[in-house]
Amino acid sequence: MTQQQKLATTLNHGALPYPRGTLVMDTVSERTGRLVGVIEERFKSNGKLHKSQAFMTPEGGGIEWDVPLERIKRAEKPKCDANQGDHPHRSGRPDSRLPGDLDAQSHDDEACATRFT
Predict the structure, then answer these.
(1) How confident is the model over 61-82, as a mean pLDDT?
(2) Contact 94, 115 (CB under 8 A)
(3) Mean pLDDT in residue range 25-37
(4) Residue 86 and residue 99: Cα distance in Å, rounded?
(5) 11-17 average pLDDT score
C-alpha cells in the first residue's frame, strides 16, 4: 500500500479584500460577520498559493470562524462622508470631484467609495 504525502506548506497573513471590520457575507451559508483577517497557505517548494481563508467575527462579538476567501463578499454598501474635511473630493486634485454638489442629499456614497477605496 502506498501512502500519499502532503507537500510542505507555510501559513502567512494575506491581503484583505476589504478594510478590516467590513461587514462581509459567506455566499454559501449567508452568514454575516466583520472581516478580521486572511490566512494564506503556500507551498514551501515554490511559494504558490494553495488556499486562502477569511476570518470573521459575528457583529456584537462572539467566536470567530473561517471560510474560503473566494466565498466572501461585501454585505454592506461602502460609505462615504462628503462632509469630512479630509474627504478625497476635497483634495484639490482636478479629477477628485464627482459631478454634482458635495452635500449629503446629492452625494452618491457608492460611486465615491467605489472610486476611492
Answers:
(1) 84
(2) no
(3) 94
(4) 18
(5) 95
Domain positions in the chain: 9-74, 77-117
Nearest to 66 by CA among 44, 51, 76, 82: 51
| Contact call for residues 42 and 51 (beta carbons, < 8 A) | no
Query: What is 9-74's CATH number?
Result: 2.40.10
Closest CA to 36 of 58, 11, 5, 10: 58
Beta carbons of 79 and 112 less than 8 angstroms apart: no
Name the residue among 20, 29, 24, 28 with its Cα closest to residue 58: 24
- Mean pLDDT across 78-100: 52
Cβ atoms within 10 Å of 114's Cβ, excluding its own: 12
Measured in residues, the chain has a length of 117
Amino acid identity of residue 25, one-letter, is M
Contact 89, 71 (CB under 8 A): no
Q: Residues 94-117: pLDDT tens digits?
A: 444 444 444 444 455 555 554 444
